[in-house]
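Students often ask why inverse folding is considered easier than folding. One informal answer: many sequences map to the same fold, so there is more than one right answer. In these notes we will look at a single instance of the problem. The structure comes first.
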């Protein structure tokens, strides 16, 4: 092996290692959303969005601009009431695309809560429950940027999976043959 080949292999290994480290950090960032939302961790939410971050929740819910305003959502009385009622954000494994100091993530999210009207059922070795109700299932598109302290959320767009085109458009971005410019 020549010195040039050795340097090229080292650079390739370094690039591959950075890719792995970036993906792991991004997976953890996206995986932290459900626990932060379900505990009302506004300080965490504020820290993971960029100062000018965008949270686009669709036509029926408010559009929020800036990490302060996005973090404040978790402290709203209605959100706190949902938390006390057993709110559970349940996320699917995200699809991550790296593009230098940007990343794009496509994922699913379910909003669950205890079914107060459900019949009690017993699951052997797990007790009795009235079960959970799936309130909504959503498609998410996250745009991340590399910051001095690690990856941050620049924007998040979600749409309900109700058969409409906007949610399908989000999901299609995870398919290599159907990606369009972000």
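Output (designed amino acids):
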């Amino acid at each position: 092996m020549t010195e040039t080949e050795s340097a090229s292999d080292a650079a390739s290994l370094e690039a591959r290692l950075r890719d792995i480290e970036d993906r792991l950090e991004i997976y953890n960032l996206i995986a932290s959303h459900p626990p932060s939302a379900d505990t009302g961790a506004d300080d965490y939410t504020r820290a993971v969005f960029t100062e000018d971050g965008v949270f686009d929740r669709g036509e029926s819910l408010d559009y929020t601009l800036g990490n302060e305003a996005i973090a404040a959502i978790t402290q709203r009385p209605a959100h706190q009431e949902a938390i006390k009622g057993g709110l559970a954000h349940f996320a699917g494994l995200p699809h991550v695309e790296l593009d230098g100091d940007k990343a794009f993530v496509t994922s699913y999210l379910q909003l669950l809560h205890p079914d107060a009207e459900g019949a009690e059922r017993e699951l052997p070795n797990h007790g009795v429950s009235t079960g959970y109700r799936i309130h909504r299932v959503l498609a998410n598109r996250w745009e991340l940027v590399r910051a001095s302290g690690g990856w941050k959320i620049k924007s998040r767009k979600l749409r309900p999976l109700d058969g409409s085109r906007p949610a399908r458009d989000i999901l299609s971005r995870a398919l290599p043959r159907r990606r369009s410019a972000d």
